[in-house]
Design goal:
TIM Barrel; two-stranded antiparallel ribbon; alpha/beta; 323 residues; 10 helices
Length: 323
C-alpha cells in the first residue's frame, strides 16, 4: 500500500486517511481557487478532503472530486469526504435536511464523515450568524443529544458512513457518550491542534474512548482568516520549528504535520499553493526522534487561533473549559 494512503480505523469499522486536505478559504477568495486546489490535491495523492456547509464551497469541492472520478484518477470509494452540520441546523428535524443540502451541492450520494461543526446551537434561518437589532448572535435552545440522535439516523440511512463532532470539549463529548440509548459513538472530534495548542489532555481523553482526534489549523492559521488576531504568533516562523526543519531538511510545515501523525492524530493540511500541496505529502517520508517529539511538546502555549469570539456568550461555548 502506498504510504501516503495510510489510514486509521474508526470505532465504527470504517477507515480514515491520516492526512487530509483542508478546503476552507476566506469568503473574498475566488471560488475557482478552491476548485483548482482540490483538483491538484487529488492529483498529488490526497484522498481525504475536508469541507463544511459553512465554508460555502461545496459546489466547487464536489465538482473537483467528480471531475477526478470522471478522468479515472480516483473512484468515489477512494475519496474520504467530510462535511459538517452548521449551528443553525441543530434542531433534530433540520439535521437530515442540512446534510441533504450539502449532498445536493456536492452532487454526491453520501459523505464519509458528518460532523456537528460546533456545540453551539443558533436560531434557524438563512444567515450563518442570525442576529437581533443590537447585533447580538441569537442562540437556540437545543439538546445536543437529540441532535446526535438525528445524526445517527443519517448514518442509518446511508447518507453518512460515519458521524462525529468538532470543537467539542471533554465535558460535551461525555454528554454524548453518556447519552441513554446511544447507538453510535462519535468516531472523531475535529479540533484546532498544533504545537502551540497541542491538546494533550483532550487527546488522551479521546484515545481512552476510542475517538480519533482530527487536527485543523495544524500549521497555525493564515493571517487572512478574519477570525484570527493579526498580532498572534506565526507558528511556522517559530525558531524551534525552523531549526528542526533545517535538521531534517524539511519545511517547518512538514515538521508540524509529522508531529501530529506520530502522536496518533489525523491531520488536515490546508494550502492552495500547488508546490506546498505536493510538498505536504512528504510527511510520510521521514520520522521525528522521540527527543524531538518532546521538544515539540514543549512548544505548547495554549494559543488558540480560532476562538469563535462571536459566540463567547453562548451557554455552550466550548473553549472556556481547560480541555
Amino acid at each position: 500500500m502506498d504510504p501516503k494512503y495510510q489510514c486509521v480505523k474508526l470505532n465504527d469499522g470504517h477507515f480514515i486517511p491520516v492526512l487530509g486536505f483542508g478546503t476552507y478559504a476566506p469568503p473574498e477568495d475566488p471560488k475557482n481557487k478552491t476548485l483548482e486546489a482540490t483538483k491538484v490535491a487529488i492529483e498529488a495523492g490526497f484522498r481525504h478532503i475536508d469541507s463544511a456547509y459553512f465554508y460555502n464551497n461545496e459546489e466547487e469541492v464536489g465538482l473537483a472530486i467528480r471531475s477526478k472520478i470522471a478522468e479515472g484518477i480516483v473512484k468515489r470509494e477512494d475519496i474520504f469526504y467530510t462535511t459538517k452540520l452548521w449551528c443553525t441546523f441543530h434542531r433534530p428535524e433540520l439535521v437530515r435536511p442540512g446534510l441533504e443540502t450539502s449532498l445536493k451541492r456536492l452532487q454526491l450520494d453520501y459523505v464519509d464523515l458528518y460532523l456537528i461543526h460546533f456545540p453551539m446551537s443558533l436560531k434557524p434561518g438563512q444567515k450563518f450568524y442570525p442576529g437581533n437589532e443590537q447585533g447580538n448572535v441569537l442562540p437556540d435552545t437545543v439538546d445536543l443529544r437529540a441532535t446526535w440522535e438525528a445524526m445517527e439516523k443519517c448514518k442509518d440511512a446511508g447518507l453518512a458512513k460515519s458521524i462525529g463532532v468538532s470543537n467539542f470539549n471533554c465535558r460535551q463529548l461525555e454528554m454524548i457518550l453518556n447519552k441513554p440509548g446511544l447507538r453510535y459513538k462519535p468516531v472523531c472530534n475535529q479540533v484546532e491542534c498544533h504545537p502551540y495548542l497541542n491538546q494533550s489532555k483532550l487527546l488522551d481523553f479521546c484515545k481512552s474512548k476510542d475517538i480519533v482526534l482530527v487536527a485543523y489549523c495544524a500549521l497555525g492559521s493564515q493571517r487572512e482568516n478574519q477570525c484570527v488576531d493579526p498580532s498572534s504568533l506565526v507558528l511556522l516562523s517559530d525558531p524551534v520549528l525552523c531549526a528542526m526543519a533545517e535538521k531534517y531538511k524539511r519545511t517547518p510545515a512538514l515538521i508540524a504535520l509529522r508531529y501530529q501523525l506520530q502522536r496518533g492524530v489525523v491531520v488536515l493540511a490546508k494550502s492552495f499553493n500547488e508546490k506546498h500541496i505536493r510538498e505536504n505529502l512528504q510527511v510520510f517520508e521521514f520520522q521525528l526522534s522521540s527527543e524531538d517529539m518532546k521538544v515539540l511538546d514543549g512548544l505548547n502555549r495554549n494559543i488558540r487561533y480560532i476562538d469563535a469570539k462571536l459566540l463567547t456568550s453562548h451557554p455552550n461555548y466550548p473553549f472556556s473549559d481547560e480541555y
